[in-house]
Design a protein that fits this description.
The chain is α+β, with helices and mostly antiparallel strands.
C-alpha cells in the first residue's frame, strides 16, 4: 500500500504510570501543546462539558508554512481505557487507547483519515488533493511517535512543562 492509500495508523509505547494517570494526562486537551509537534494549544468550548463525550474543543496548529485552527468533538471518554475525538465532525479521528501493562500502561495513539476528510480535501484542493492528503498523512505518521515519546516522558517524570506539575 502506498502512503497515499494509508487511511489508518497507530503506534504504541509502554508508559511507567497507571492507566488512570495516563488517561488524565491525554484527556486534558488543554495540555496538548506540551506533546504535539503540530498542535500548539487546545481549549474547551464549554468548561462544563470538558472531557465528556459530545464536548467540543478548538485546536491551534502551527507549521513553519501555515497556521490553522480545527474544531473537534469528543467521541469516546472512558477513563483508563480510551479517549478519542473527531476533527471537523467527520474528517479525522484521533484517539488514545490504554491497556494495563504490569504496573504501567500500554498507550496506543491512533489516526484515521475518514471518508468525510478525503471528500473535503478533494472539494477544497481539487487536483492538488492527493498531494495535500499525502502531506497530512506524512505529518500523522511522523508526529505519532514524537507525541507518544513526549507523553511518556511527561507521565513518567510526573511534571508538566506548562506549570511544573502533573
Amino acid at each position: 500500500m502506498s502512503s497515499t492509500e494509508i487511511r489508518h495508523h497507530q503506534e504504541s509505547v509502554t508508559v511507567h504510570a497507571s492507566v488512570e494517570t495516563v488517561y488524565d494526562l491525554v484527556s486534558d486537551i488543554t495540555r496538548t501543546g506540551e506533546w504535539s509537534p503540530v498542535c500548539t494549544r487546545c481549549w474547551w468550548e464549554d468548561d462544563a462539558t470538558a472531557g465528556q463525550v459530545g464536548a467540543w474543543f478548538t485546536g491551534r496548529n502551527e507549521l513553519p508554512h501555515r497556521t490553522w485552527e480545527t474544531r473537534s468533538q469528543v467521541v469516546v471518554a472512558d477513563r483508563g481505557r480510551e479517549f478519542a475525538w473527531v476533527v471537523g465532525g467527520d474528517r479525522v479521528r484521533w484517539g488514545y487507547t490504554l491497556t494495563p501493562a504490569g504496573t504501567g500502561t500500554t498507550l496506543t495513539e491512533s489516526w484515521d483519515f475518514l471518508p468525510g476528510g478525503i471528500a473535503m480535501f478533494e472539494e477544497k484542493f481539487g487536483d492538488d488533493a492527493p498531494a495535500q492528503i499525502l502531506d497530512r498523512t506524512r505529518q500523522a505518521l511522523e508526529g505519532i511517535p514524537q507525541t507518544l515519546a513526549a507523553i511518556k516522558r511527561i507521565a513518567e517524570s510526573g511534571t508538566s512543562l506548562k506549570d511544573g506539575r502533573l
